[in-house]
Amino acid sequence: MLFMGEEYGEDAPFQYFVSFSGDQLINGVRKGRKSEFKKFHKKCTPPDPQDEATFLRSKLNWEKREEGNHKTLLEYYKTLIKIRKEHPALSSLNSVNMEVEGHEGKKTVAIKRWLNGDESGLLCIFNFNKDTVQSTVSLAGAEEWEKFFDSADTLWGGTGSSSSNVLTYNDAFTITGLSLSLYKRRG
Question: Do 99 and 180 have their domain in common?
């Protein structure tokens, strides 16, 4: 689930704000917020929900969608959504058409997905390790798998992909730290 502005990395805080009339209601809300915040932040007071400045700090900066890392993040999400829509293996998310293989020591997970009657399976490899690792994947089977997406690519602001371009059964592959690579059947 994305929050408003998260798709482009909005950095404006979303603070609770109101525009009430009536001193009794306004003071009740302020008192309630202070009481609620006391459990989390003992030394600070919450932003005044009735203050216009609280509202203004919370406004989305839509122009950020078109610049720098914000634009890159938005394009990243758009690409992932497009992949989900275009690949049949992702159209029916169930555990019947899926195999999972994990390597706990290396902190990698491989997921192979397919749709019955469709040969266009998908292989997703995740590296939850902060370091680049080498591993193998037996889920690939006899087919060759070709990489078509890599979150470590410099296009997405990553350090550069080190993932193997083609995978086959039990071949060693390399994957950049804290990244994911997507493969489709070759041919």
Answer: yes
In which domain, by residue range, is 136 found? 87-185
Task: Please give the tally of structural domains in the chain.
Answer: 2
Distance, in Å, from the CA atom of 187 to the CA atom of 182, rounded to the nearest integer, reads: 16
Q: What share of the chain is helix, strand, coil (3-state, %, to 5)?
A: 30, 20, 50
In a domain? residue 73: no
Closest CA to 66 of 9, 28, 123: 9
pLDDT tens across 13-53, in order? 888 999 999 999 999 999 998 888 887 766 778 899 999 99
User: Which of the four pLDDT bands, split at 50, 70 and 90, describes residue 139?
Assistant: confident
Region of residue 5 (left: phi > 0; alpha: psi -120 to 50; beta: else): left
CB of 113 closer than 8 Å to CB of 101: no
Q: What is the pLDDT of residue 38?
A: 81
For residue 153, CA distances in Å to 40, 77, 82, 108 come to 39, 14, 17, 18
For the record, the structure tokens of 10 come out as 């909005």
What pairs with residue 108 in β-bridges? Answer: 103, 127
